[in-house]
Amino acid sequence: MFELKRIRPEAIPGALARAERYRLLNEPEQAESICLDVLAIEAENQTALVMLLLSLTDQFGGDRRDCVAEATAVLPRLHGDYERAYYEAIVWERRATARLDRGGVGVAQAVFPWLQKAMWHYGRAEAMRPAGNDDAILRWNTCARLCVWHKLEPEPERGFEPALED
After folding, report:
1. Domain range for residue 135?
2. Which of 78, 102, 121 is the last residue of a domain?
3. Is residue 85 part of a domain?
4. pLDDT for 76-103, tens place per residue?
5. In a domain, 127, yes or no
6. Domain count, the chain
7. In three state form, how does the secondary structure of the chain look?
């Protein structure tokens, strides 16, 4: 329908700074669009890939159903094992917090396993974190506190209960 215009390679640093500002202004769609423009020029730009993933996770609570799949599809494009583990944990954590924000029946049972997965990936990231980088620990602690604050726990196992006969 529309042929998108391409930005110049020398405009990439300014575009990425603008995308970060749009994220801070809670305009993730604008940030996502800018990241896609950058990636059209530099497909492996790690800063743009991370910002794209984060802008997609910023939209988890909205109407777009494809954001989780799109964010997950960015993960293999990240170059480092630490980055892949850390940002996979971010996807699970933000999916959980978006669901918590919506509330409703069964939210605790839906969210607890997602936070467990986030914590597992943060644990993997912690084991290979760069010197001086405790981001994975800080995020793991946040997930643990969310479980405590919201009284989240695993769904109790139900044993087999035969149907009553009339």
Report:
1. 80-154
2. 78
3. yes
4. 999 999 999 999 999 999 999 999 999 8
5. yes
6. 2
7. CCCCCCCCHHHHHHHHHHHHHHHHCCCHHHHHHHHHHHHHHCCCCHHHHHHHHHHHHCCCCCCCCCHHHHHHHHHHHCCCHHHHHHHHHHHHHHHHHHHHHHCCCCHHHHHHHHHHHHHHHHHHHHHCCCCCCCHHHHHHHHHHHHHHHCCCCCCCCCCCCCCCCC
86 with 23, same domain: the answer is no
Q: Are 105 and 126 in contact (CB under 8 A)?
A: no
Task: Measure the CA–CA gap between 38 and 32, rounded to whole angstroms.
Answer: 10
Which of 78, 96, 128 is the endpoint of a domain? 78
pLDDT at 159 over 80: no
Q: Are 30 and 60 in contact (CB under 8 A)?
A: no
Residues 148 and 93 in one domain: yes
Q: Regarding predicted confidence, which is higher, 87 or 110? A: 87
One domain, residues 73 and 113: no
Distances (CA, A) of 123 to 21, 58, 72, 118, 128: 30, 23, 19, 9, 9
